[in-house]
């Protein structure tokens, strides 16, 4: 699914950017951590039955938008964080095509009754 | 022989236990086993150097870090064992194993899912604790992550099967080990 694939690219960029653009501090730690996990959840969300995992990336995107204020870093690092965060939020909202059916999916496990669909 | 429709879990448009769904996962797990085993042999000192095209001394620093030796066995050896479990648990059982052998499917899911996320944790530790990246460790993590989504659909089908068994007043424990075999309840 293209939105999840783009989130993987964003995550890899985020994790690599402290080394490429040579910056340290809290921004470096935050971006490396969030980047690796964003790419991971993006990859998992490509599978149709795991599409809901994209909501985790929405939360990571929200964190990226507010992180410059909490961790107090400025300049292009803050702009980059907010830009990647907004992009991740937009992409996480895209459900994409789900052509298969999964007997009611994961939610069916918590629903009462014999059949979840 | 059952028909293709009967092999599908109820309410599903495909059969997550078919060989088309599982076969490539076994192959990918075997590649992961080879890579992780190679790194483990380096950690054990059987091989003198580990292949590292991009990050200079990165692999060396990561693979000989204190973190990699927290357990008695080097972490890449444990990774290789996890991939071996992935491959074996991916291979056991027929094309309807989501209802005939739920315990294998759930073992497979536990090996692929949580263990895959542990490998991602180790990857995040590379830059944060050691300020280094290790190419083959990253390749191994990518393999682990690639397997998670495609393996989970089968786990979902088995969990739905167990839920139906419970709704039919069959002990979940019994259904987990014996599947649909030997009982009136068919699970489908």
General description of the model:
The complex is a heterodimer of chains A (117) and B (188). Helices cover 64% and strands 0% of the residues of chain A. Chain A has helices at residues 2-20, 25-45, 54-70, 75-92. In chain A, helix 1 (2-20) packs antiparallel against helix 2. The relative contact order of chain B is 0.16. Chain B is mostly helical. Chain B is elongated. Classes of the chains: A mainly alpha (117), B mainly alpha (188). At the A-B interface, helix 1 and helix 2 of A face helix 6 and helix 7 of B.
Average pLDDT of chain B works out at 89
Shape of chain B: elongated
Q: How many individual domains of chain B? A: 1
The percent range for helix content of chain A is 55-70%
What portion of residues of chain B is helical? 55-70%
Shape by Cα distribution of chain A? elongated
Order of helices and strands of chain A: HHHH
**Any guess at the CATH architecture of chain B?**
Up-down Bundle
What is the number of helical segments of chain B per DSSP (H or I, 4+ residues)?
A: 8
Features:
heterodimer, A: 117 residues, mainly alpha, 0% strand, elongated, B: 188 residues, de novo design (two linked rop proteins), 8 helices
What does the secondary structure layout of this molecule look like, with pairings?
The complex is a heterodimer of chains A (117) and B (188).
Chain A: H1 2-20, H2 25-45, H3 54-70, H4 75-92
Helix pairs in contact in A: 1-2, 1-4, 2-3, 3-4
Chain B: H1 4-7, H2 19-44, H3 58-63, H4 75-91, H5 97-100, H6 102-130, H7 135-167, H8 172-178
Briefly say what this structure is:
By secondary structure, chain A is an all-alpha fold.
């Amino acid at each position: 699914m293209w939105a999840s694939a783009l989130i993987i690219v964003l995550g890899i960029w985020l994790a690599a950017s402290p080394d490429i653009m040579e910056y340290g501090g809290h921004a470096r730690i935050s971006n490396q951590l969030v980047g690796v996990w964003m790419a991971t959840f993006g990859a998992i969300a490509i599978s149709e039955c795991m599409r809901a995992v994209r909501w985790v990336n929405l939360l990571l995107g929200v964190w990226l938008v507010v992180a410059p204020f909490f961790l107090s870093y400025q300049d292009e690092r803050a702009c980059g964080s907010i830009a990647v965060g907004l992009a991740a939020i937009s992409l996480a909202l895209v459900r994409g095509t789900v052509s298969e059916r999964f007997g009611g999916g994961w939610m069916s496990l918590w629903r009462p009754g014999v059949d979840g669909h | 022989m059952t028909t293709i429709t009967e092999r599908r879990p109820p309410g599903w448009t495909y059969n997550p236990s078919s060989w088309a769904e599982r076969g490539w996962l076994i192959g990918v797990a075997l590649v992961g086993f080879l890579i992780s085993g190679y790194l483990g042999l380096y950690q054990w000192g059987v091989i003198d150097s580990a292949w590292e095209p991009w990050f200079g001394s990165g692999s060396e620093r990561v693979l000989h870090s204190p973190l990699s030796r927290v357990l008695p066995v080097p972490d890449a050896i444990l990774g290789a064992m996890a991939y071996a479990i992935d491959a074996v648990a991916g291979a056991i059982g027929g094309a309807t194993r989501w209802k005939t052998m739920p315990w294998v499917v759930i073992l497979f899911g536990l090996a692929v899912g949580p263990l895959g996320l542990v490998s991602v944790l180790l990857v995040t530790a590379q830059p944060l604790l050691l300020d280094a990246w290790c190419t083959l460790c990253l390749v191994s993590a990518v393999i682990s992550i690639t397997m998670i989504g495609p393996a989970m659909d089968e786990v979902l089908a088995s969990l739905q099967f167990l839920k139906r068994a419970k709704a039919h007043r069959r002990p979940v424990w019994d259904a987990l080990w014996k599947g649909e075999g030997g009982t009136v309840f068919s699970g489908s």
